[in-house]
Each structure stands twice: as structure tokens, then as C-alpha cells.
Amino acid sequence: GMKKITVVDQGPLFHTGGSSSHAPGIVFQTNGSQSMMRLAMHSVKKFGALRDDDGKPVYMQTGGIEVATTPERMRELHRKYSFARSYGAHDVEMLTPEQVVAKSPWIDEKVILGGFYNPSDGIAPGVKVDTAISKRAVARGVVFKGETTVKDIIVKDGAVKTVVTDKGDIEADLVVCCVGIWGPNIGKMVGVTIPLQPLEHQLAFMKPHKSLTKFKSEAAESVQPVLRHQDKSLYFKQVWDTYVIGSYQHRAMPVQAEDIKSPAEALKNGLRRNEPSIHKFTPEDFTKPFKDSVELLPNLAECELDWAMNGMFSFTEDGMSIFGESSKVKGFWSAEAVWLTHSGGAGDAMAEWIALGRPGLELQPIDLREHHIDRFEANGHSPSYIRRRANQNYIEVYDILHPLQSREDSRPIRTSPFYEQQKALAAEFFVASSWERPQWYNANYVLDKSFVPDREDWAAQFWSPIAVAEHKTMRERVGMVDMTGLKKVEVSGKNATALLNKLTTGKMNMKVGTVTYTLMLNEQGGIRSDITVGRLEKNLYQLGINGNMDIRYMKDHAEEMGDVAVHDISTTYCCIGLWGPKAREVVQSISENDWSNEGHGFFKIKESFIKEVPVRAMRLSYVGELGWEIYTTQDYGRYLWDVLWEAGQEHGLIAVGRAAFDAMRLEKGYRSWGKDMWTEHDPFEAGLGFAVRMDKEEFIGKTALEQRQKEGLRQQLRTLTFDEADKLVIGNSETVFDGEDVVGFVTSSYYGASVGKGMAYAWLNTGYDVGDKLEVLYLGNKLAVTVTEDTLFDPDMTRMREPKKKLVSS
What is the CB neighbour count within 10 angstroms for residue 80? Predict the structure, then answer.
């Protein structure tokens, strides 16, 4: 339905000189990110429908093989098989060495242990794809302007107004920046950071080989499966009677976006007009990769190098794309750091987002939280940080990365006021949003761990039995958890209540001093965030939220409404979670305020003092125990930790890391947004219907939610327990089976120290009840699980609520 669309490119159409012009076009769809894999699968579907001017398919569905030469890689391929199945690729296969060679005869069977095969992988030549799609667009009225350089973008009153080019101005109230390696340059025109880094990447074309001559006469230029040898950071494709080798094995070679030539500049510098993103080949970086290639494909030893280049691709700090409208300039959208593999899906998702208000694929929603332009913290816009992280991502692009693994570079950047005390307790720090966040404390090694089952080698990485011991100890005594990294905002002003009533599923006309758990939905009824809201004054609320996207969303609506402000206090306040049956004894011993059940009831917020420290205390608990989230400004933080620590020693207080915290919340039946549910799910599917007040006035998403209720549940988030007490999975999209049928996937999994078994959340097809038996695929083995009640620990919530004793008449 969008009209008056103009596509502008500085290069000649359609061989424009960017990465798409020289990219090998290899499409491997399987990815540990569900959104990335869905974009890739949609791309294959879209490419498969394209034909060139002669009516021939543009996409060559050769199939794709990933081989393993180490036991670690073979295990990784089993993981890929599992999440590929869970994401909908039901025709993938695990192959023996013999089966691999049957599909790709040049491979030396003796050097491989097996392979993973996706029959719908293949090759999508960038220029051919661009040409075919663009011709479709032209037929629908889209105007393409090649060899037209954007010189500036005029912004007026905070919104894009005009695109200035060397061929004249184009009036536009919406601009999509999708120029890849040149993205940072376009962003600068409007004052928006596009945090990507162009890096050189080697691609080598070998001379023809006699055994491949037969393919010269075939209808398709590539028929053998595309191949990845990730143990050596290599990939390969057969083209007619030659092989092409791509290598990530070499050093990171960053290039500044402003130094990349335009096609016009390329002519002056001796390059062809379509080669500005190709750099001179550096043969010294190819010596070892070629040797490793020959080890896998011995026939390559008979091939000479025909032509090679150092091309250019975009990398970001986390390997994801950059999608969405800028929070700084209205109408300026980004669709950057998109590889050809995901391009068809990315284009359609962006089109639906712009036209319909939410990203989708063929009108089915897709959650792009991992790619949102607002996901980056302030330091994530630093040129040095972008360069360092992108370089590291290039080096690690084919590495086996554990889902719990934290990066080691650029640390520490953000620390809480408790950092020195935590180091003194030998905290094991992981990184989240650049915060150093303790996962467990090695000082707690003295705690009893005899009840903790052994874990297999993969699951035991980035985990410690100490975390389980901390879990059990906090349930029995009391623990302190650093919650400083939690995003926090204050909402204030005359329309504060009205704004929150509009944005959330709860009733915000609650008494001052009350806290509530509620949701923010999108227009389609999907969960865009879950939050806690505490009412401090008539026109002042404190919220615990999930990230920068929430802040942006709330500020946009506040600006429209007026008389209300949203203020980010994330770095103003620190927070300690004090939880456990002895939490009250600790805090009451160092405060003159009343912390009793009557003085500070459940789901209440009060301003108090702990010794000399002014605090805001919310009595709530994400772990299912008596206690408080205790907030104070950062300048008081160190002292707050010290006085709580000293007072708690006689009560057995320990510091507790996030690993125990997460396991306790799963025992309690509490979900984590972004991990267990997102915008593709509604509250009733996620088991959060209790947080939705359908009897309140209109709120965003209510109308859609009413319709979805009429249609019934499409899926359900259910709790599973492992039948064998010592079994567990990582919680990274492992496939759930009912017999041979795929019926869902796992989101979170931890060992429940209080219930004595492994636990998991999983999205399942509807129709499964408590007691039903299923299986979870993990590293090639199916583990028996049982569907259980949602809440495994203290379902009546007596430990948190402490209900007043009732008088019993005689």
C-alpha cells in the first residue's frame, strides 16, 4: 500500500559495487538466533520464486553441508540440528562421513567425523537477486535511480524532510538507510550512529579442474552442496568447473566507512566502477587457509589460484543486524548489517514494520528485539568499542560459542558500587548490557554442594555447582543479589497515571505506596515487555523495565500525551535484592523503620532508612522468598552493601549470583521477557493472564487481545521437569518431541535445588496437560521430561506474602 517509493544508489544498477556485488551468495540458513533463522528461511522461499530474464531460477538450491573434524564441532552440529528442527526446518539431517562424501565427493572422508545437512541451503547470486526483485518493484511503480550520490539529508523539526543528491533533491518524510558498509556515513548526515564496522574478507577463485568439467554443460552453475568447514573458518562453493574458497581464518582487517571509495572515485583510483568495496588481495593471509582447504578437499592441490580479492562485509558488536526507526530523527529508518542470507526476510519484515506498524513475514509477526536499533547502550556507540567488538566477532564468526559465554574484551566498562566488595568475594563476573554482573561467588565454595548432580562437559561450561549451593542457601537463610543492572525509570507529571494506564495491562489508579506487576503489549496483543510499577506519589511512579526499547516507547507516547515525563534513572540508582526467610531480621536490625508485615506489606514500596542510607524499598521477589528490592543512589551504594553484609553475618547471609537467581525464578514459575516470551506471544499463551485487567479502560493491545481470546490459544509456555534427576539442558531452543513429532522448543533450563530435579520452560503446541510425557533433544540424545504445574515451589506464595494469622474462635 505504500506509494511514491524511490530507491537511490551511488553505483550503476544493479552491479552497484557494494558487498552484494561480490558476496559469494552462499545461503546457510541454520542459526542459533530464531529471528535470524526465520529471516533466512523466508529469504530462501522468496529467492526460490525469482526467475531471470530467461526464465531460469535465480536461486540454486544445492543443499548445504557443515562438516566436523573434532568431537567439539560434532557436538555443535548436533545442537544445530536440534534448534533447526525447533525453528521449523524439519528436513535437516545428521550425516555420517560416508553420507557426506556421497553428496560432496571431493571431501576426504578420513578427516571428518560427520556432517549436518540442510537440503534447502544454496546460492543466491547478489546481483541476480537484486535485479529480479527490483524489476518486480519497478512493475509496481517503484522508481530506481542509479549512479546518484546522496550528499545530505535535511532534517526539520526533528524529522527527515529532503534527500539531497548530486542529481537533485528528493522530498521524503521517510528514509530507509540500507547501504551496508557505507551505513555510518549516511547516519552521520542526520546525527544518528549506525554502529557497524566494515571488515575485509578473503574470497579466492580457483582455476578449472578436469573432474569438474562435466558441470560446465549443466543448466545450473552450481550443483554440489555448498560447504562449511568451520573448524578451520572456511567455506566453499562449486561454480561450473571451479571451486571458490572463502576464509574467515585471517586477521581482522577493519576499514573505516569514510575511506571506502564510491564508484566514481573507484574509476579515478584504477578500480572498475563496480569494485569500490574490493581491496587488493593479501596472499600472506591465504597461505594457511589454502593448506587447510587442501586437507579437506585434496583435489584442490591440483588447482591454481585464478583470481582473489579482499572483499568487504559489515559486522556489529553482537553479530545482529540494525533495524528500526531512529529515536533521534523521526522518519529515519535503519536496515543495516544485513547479509545476503537474511536479506529477503529482512526486506519483507521491514516493509511490514513501516507499513503496518510491526515487523512481520507474510503478515505473521516476527520479533526483532535482537536487532533493534535502540538495543545498544551508550558505550555501544563509541567508535573504538564498535571497532573492537566487530573485529572480535569477525574472528569468532565460526567459533563454537557457548550460549552462556561472556566476551572477554572491553572489560570492565560498567560496574556497580559493590564491585570491589564482589571482587573480594571472588565473584565470577559475566557481562550483560556492558555491566559486570556476578554469576556466582567463589567465596561460597565452602557451602554444601553434595546434593548437586554432575553435569556433562558442555553444560558444565560457564556454570558452577556453587550457584546451586547459593540457591539452596538463600532459600534456607538469606542472600544479597546485585540488581543494579536492572533498567529503571521514573514517570512523573499530571498525566503520569493516564500514560501508564494507556501503555499497560494493569490498573494504575492504585494507592500511593503500592507496587504491581503488569505488561506492555503491542497493537497486535503481543508482549513487548513486562514491568513492575511502584506508585511513590500521586504523580510519581518508579518502574523496573527491560531495556532501552521500553524507554523509547514510553517517551514517544509521553511526548504525544503531554504533561508527563519519562526519566531514565538506571545509572542514578543502584539496587540490592535482599531475599530469604531471614531477610527481615537482617534489615530490621539496622533500621528504625518498621519492616514488619504490617509495617511494610507485600507489593508495597516505601522510602526508609537503613542506618544512614536513604532507600526506596519494594517488597517483592522474583525468587519466591520474603524480601525487598532496596534502591539507593549510587553514592550510597558501597556503604549500603557493607552495613547489610555486616548485619547479615549472624543470620548466615551470603552474596548470591544471577545463576541462582534465574534458577529460583523458574522454580517459582516466573518468566523472563526476551528469554521466555516476546512480542510473538500474548499474555494468555505465556501464562500471564493474571496480569491483564480486561475490565479496565482501553489500553494498547486490548482490542487485539479480545479477538485473540475468541480464537483460542495457538501455543502455550509450559513447565517441564526432567524424569532423571541428573539431566538438564542449556535452555537454548532445544527441540521438544512427542514421539517423532516436533511439538515445541525450550527457552530456559536450570537445576531446581529446592525441588531436586532439572526444570525447563518450553513453548508447546496446545493440548498438553500436567503429567504428559515428552522428550527434549540434547546433543543427539532424547531426554525424558514431564509436563508439570506452572509453579514448582511454594505455589501458594506463603513465603513471600506472610498472610496475617486469623483469629480462631473457640
Answer: 20
C-alpha cell at 348: 519483507
Q: Residues 780-806: what's their mean pLDDT?
A: 88
How far CA 437 is from CA of 169, 381, 416, 433, in Å, comes to 50, 21, 9, 10
Q: Which of 22, 201, 229, 681 is catalytic?
A: 201
Nearby residues of 745 by Cβ (< 8 Å), 6 or more positions away: 83, 86, 87, 733, 734, 735, 736, 762, 763
What are φ and ψ of residue 463, in 5° steps? -145, 155
Cell (9 digits) for 583: 531477610
Q: What rounded mean pLDDT belongs to the chain?
A: 95
- What is the rounded distance in angstroms from the CA atom of residue 239 to the CA atom of residue 256? 32
Q: How confident is the model at residue 600 (pLDDT cuts 50, 70, 90)?
A: very high
Give the chain's largest Cα–Cα span.
102
CA of residue 604 relative to chain centroid, distance? 33
How far from 249 is each of 61, 227, 253, 394, CA to CA, in Å? 26, 15, 11, 9
Q: Which of 231, 530, 550, 676 is catalytic?
A: 530
What string of DSSP letters covers 557-600?
Answer: HHHHH-S-EEEE-TTTEEEEEEESTTHHHHHHTT-SS--STTTS
The whole-angstrom separation of Cα 680 and Cα 491 is 27
Q: Contact, 440 vs 447, CB < 8 A? A: no
Q: Kindly state the cell numbers that stand for 372.
A: 533493534
Backbone angles phi, psi at 176, to 5 degrees: -105, 115
Average pLDDT over residues 787-809: 80
For the chain, how many helices (H) and strands (E)? 20, 39
State which H helix or E strand residue 305 sits in. Answer: strand 305-316
Considering 59, 235, 768, 778, which one is annotated as catalytic?
A: 235
State how far the Cα of 787 lies from the Cα of 792, in Å rounded to an integer.
11
C-alpha cell at 125: 547470486
748: which 3 cell numbers?
530456559
Contact assessment for residue 195 and residue 376, using Cβ atoms and an 8 Å cutoff: yes
Q: Are 471 and 663 in contact (CB under 8 A)?
A: yes
What's residue 806's pLDDT? 46
DSSP E strands in 674-729: the ranges are 716-722
* pLDDT band at residue 271 under the 50/70/90 scheme: confident
pLDDT digits (tens, 9 = 90+) for 527-558: 999 999 999 999 999 999 999 999 999 999 99
CA dist., res. 207 & res. 240, Å (int) = 11
The verdict on whether 117 is a catalytic residue reads no
Nearest Cα residue to 548 out of 564, 533, 528 = 528
Distance separating alpha carbons of residues 600 and 614, to the nearest angstrom: 16
Can you read off the three cell numbers belonging to residue 165? 543528491
Q: Cα angle vertex 133, ends 130, 137, to 5°?
A: 125
Count other C-beta atoms under 10 Å from residue 742's C-beta: 18
pLDDT-derived band at 807, boundaries 50, 70, 90: very low
- pTM of the model as a whole: 0.96
Active site residue 651: no
H or E segment and range at residue 355? helix 340-356
- CA-CA distance, 258 to 280, in Å (whole number)? 18
Other beta carbons within 10 Å of 571: 11
**441 belongs to the catalytic site:** no
> Are residues 775 and 737 in contact, defined by beta-carbon separation less than 8 angstroms?
yes
How many other CB atoms are found less than 10 A from the CB of residue 693? 17
Closest CA to 595 of 575, 572, 619: 619
Q: Would you call 487 helix, strand, or coil by DSSP?
A: strand
- HSE (side-chain half, CA atoms, 13 Å) at 647: 20
Question: Reading across the β-sheet that carries 305-316, which strands appear in turn?
Answer: 93-95, 114-118, 64-68, 226-229, 234-239, 242-247, 196-206, 305-316
- Three-state secondary-structure class, residue 500: helix
Q: How many CB atoms lie within 10 A of CB 669?
A: 17
Is residue 810 pLDDT above 60, yes or no? Answer: no
